[in-house]
Specification:
Layout (H helix, E strand, L loop, with lengths): L2 E4 L1 H8 L6 H14 L1 E4 L1 H8 L5 H11 L1 E3 L4 H16 L9 H12 L2 E3 L3 H7 L5 E2 L2
Parallel strand pairs: 1-2, 1-4, 2-3, 4-5
Length: about 130
């Protein structure tokens, strides 16, 4: 599959015009949109939705930015659960899988690169995922 999965922090950098990260995030999105598809999944969609009052406004932004929605395959959901068990064994405090587990598992199962600024958790629990980071 050609393209990259885009973590919500990258999209929010651009939408919120983050003074530290907006320029980097916008340039990396431009670069990768020219060479393949920019993907999001339902978890990422949900995370960026909190900045919008209406779904129509969110849909407009997603469409204009050229993001394509990917369903999370069962294999990735299974892997997310296994990564969460590993997290709990390492004394993680959360009681349910974190959004990053679904995102990382999907990138791993589909062989997608992941654009993110959250490096540590992805490297720890999904070491095969190729990360695009600052």
């Amino acid at each position: 599959m050609k393209g990259v999965l885009v973590d919500s922090n990258i999209i929010l950098d651009v939408l919120l015009d983050d003074p530290s990260w907006a320029d980097w995030s916008e340039s990396i999105l431009d670069k990768h949109s020219n060479s393949g598809t920019l993907y999001i999944n339902p978890v990422i969609y949900s995370e960026i939705s909190i900045g919008f009052a209406r779904i129509e406004d969110l849909e407009s932004v997603v469409t204009r930015a050229g993001f394509q929605m990917l369903d999370i395959p069962k294999e990735a959901l299974f892997l997310a659960g296994k990564a969460f068990l590993n997290y709990r064994k390492r004394k993680g405090l959360r009681r349910s899988p974190l959004p990053d587990f679904f995102i990382g598992a999907q990138a791993a199962v589909l062989g997608l690169k992941l654009i993110t600024r959250d490096v540590a958790r992805y490297r720890s629990y999904f070491p095969t995922v190729r990360l695009i980071t600052p």
